[in-house]
Please model this.
Amino acid sequence: MAAKEKYPEPTYLEYGFGELEYDVIKKELCCYCGNCIAFCPKIDKQENRPELIDYDPLCGLCYAYCPRTMLDMPTMEKKIFERVRKEDEPLGIYKKASSARIARSDVQGKAQDGGVVTALLIQALESGVIDCAVVTGRDEKWRTVPKVATTAEEIASAAGTKYTITPSVTGVQMAIDQGFKKIGFVGTPCQIQALRKVQLLDEPYQFGQDRIALLVGLFCMENFEYEQLFPKLVQGTFGLKPEDVDKFEIQKGMFRVLSGDKVKEIPIDQTDEYVWKGCGPCFDFAAELADISVGSVGSKSGWSTVLPRTDAGAQIYESALAAGSIEEGAVSEKGLALAGRLAKGKEERFSTKTAELLSQGVPVNIRR
Ligand SMILES: Cc1cc2nc3c(=O)[nH]c(=O)nc-3n(C[C@H](O)[C@H](O)[C@H](O)COP(=O)(O)OP(=O)(O)OC[C@H]3O[C@@H](n4cnc5c(N)ncnc54)[C@H](O)[C@@H]3O)c2cc1C
Model:
């Protein structure tokens, strides 16, 4: 990454939680990444939203770190990649594209796709690149739980996609509090944007952001709200108890729930009512600011599409390959083109949503 430079835009130091609440939370733009909760001891989570629980020192930190208040992609890209993304790079800047899967057969069945995320985090832990991995696990009712994993088995136990919004970044604060010095994190594009802001903004606060060592990003078109998805779709429409669900997946335009030998499904374009509202103003499909991004689209079933972006991302990918922890296949041009089209589609949705918000006087301050 390029040397830390001064961030050129206003840093909102004079702002407080009131502004965050007014500009972001009440406008339903909050992506509930957990960044403000993680890094401000005066903010906690209350019913799926950040809430002030103590006096507001007006330090501006929550406003400055929120990925929805201001996101200057070109400036961040220059700092991370030393150049700005070109128009014809819908998946962002990456060094190579491949298809891969974890070698461990016991994880292959449990992982969402190729288990590459699990393999990369285990490789990073076992080679000393990280001393812990912040992952998103779940309980038996599929409620998400951010966790600080310190063994390969703990990382593997968090494999699999939970299609519900979760403040995973709070796990980074847990890792800092527990004294870890090289923290790996896996999360959705908004969570990666949040942590990059924490790393790159030139704020006077030092609380361990230099301990974030590796960011693994997930492709993401949108996420869902537990309180909508489970009672209405899983239990209501499909008649399944949360504890009986084995896996969720999105494939070929269908949202699928797998339970034993049953498969219940619904076209993805009929799931809008369960989508987290704060996903609307997001353009980032491929977690463009991550060290390495992983997704399913573009690869065959049981494999993952992998985009190493930074030196750190490329090194961990190559070392996992060299160690035999993952096997690599070629990603097809057709598969990559499909991923690119989905990314462009998300960007178009973002432009429409942003125009609507701006016309309502909502200050969307995102430079793409
Ligand atoms: C909300 C969401 C939407 C997605 N949408 C798409 C899509 O549209 N197209 C596409 O190609 N891929 C999408 N993905 C990515 C895909 O589902 C897989 O996560 C990815 O292919 C990696 O698979 P894997 O087998 O390598 O991961 P695994 O080895 O199974 O590891 C998955 C990791 O994801 C983390 N995780 C799981 N759920 C969450 C969550 N809710 N928030 C943060 N971290 C989580 C876990 O910590 C785990 O370590 C989405 C992922 C999420 C979480």
Remarks:
- Residues 17-225+275-367 form one domain.
- Residues 1-10 have pLDDT under 50 and may be disordered.
